[in-house]
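Inverse folding, one chain.
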């Protein structure tokens, strides 16, 4: 099943995780030990972090918070615990999960455990929410996918799939497998109901 129109969520927001690792990578270039690079032990840990990104005019575009960020020198990967991302577009989008992992260049992102993506509604519409257990993303390509079961809800409408892919460039999201669900259609408001303030 395909969903077209406005993309369900901006994958580019996940690049904030990559931006948050820049300082860690620079900091760990100093005083690296040969022994430490052989084990998968964190060489830098940041507690209760916040990363903000602004546009050229100084307006806040999006921000990332988390409980902890760890950098591993053996493979230059970064792990974030409890990441929460907010993308301040119209409408705003919120992304959170138990953990997130990035490769050394920040080109590949994996969200693990209780992954939620929520796009706020517009004009009185309910928010759209995606829930799954793992989500892989390539921010530079504006592409994300998962082979885990997915539930997409919007108000009383619910869709289920055995996997999903989403492409921000084409603004198309596809549910894998035997997609099923219930689409709730609003009851049109008659002129009589409108006159009496009923919905």
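Residues assigned per position:
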């Amino acid at each position: 099943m395909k969903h077209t129109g406005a993309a369900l969520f901006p994958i580019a927001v996940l690049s904030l995780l990559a931006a948050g690792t820049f300082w860690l990578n620079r900091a760990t270039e100093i005083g690296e030990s040969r022994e430490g690079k052989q084990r998968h032990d964190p060489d830098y840990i940041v507690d209760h972090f916040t990363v903000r990104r602004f546009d050229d005019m100084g307006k806040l575009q999006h921000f990332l918070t988390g409980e902890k960020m760890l950098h591993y020198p053996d493979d230059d990967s970064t792990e974030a615990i409890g990441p929460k991302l907010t993308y301040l577009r119209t409408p705003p989008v919120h992304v959170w999960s138990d953990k997130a992992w990035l490769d050394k260049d920040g080109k590949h992102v994996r969200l693990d455990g209780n992954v939620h993506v929520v796009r706020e509604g517009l004009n009185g519409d309910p928010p759209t929410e995606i829930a799954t257990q793992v989500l892989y993303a390539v921010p530079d390509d504006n592409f994300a996918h998962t082979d885990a079961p997915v539930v997409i809800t919007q108000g009383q409408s619910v869709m289920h799939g055995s996997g999903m892919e989403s492409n921000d460039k084409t603004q198309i999201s596809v549910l894998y497998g035997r997609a099923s669900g219930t689409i709730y259609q609003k009851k049109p408001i008659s002129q009589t109901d409108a006159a009496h303030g009923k919905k």
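Confidence is low (pLDDT under 50) at residues 2-10. The chain has one domain: 2-184.
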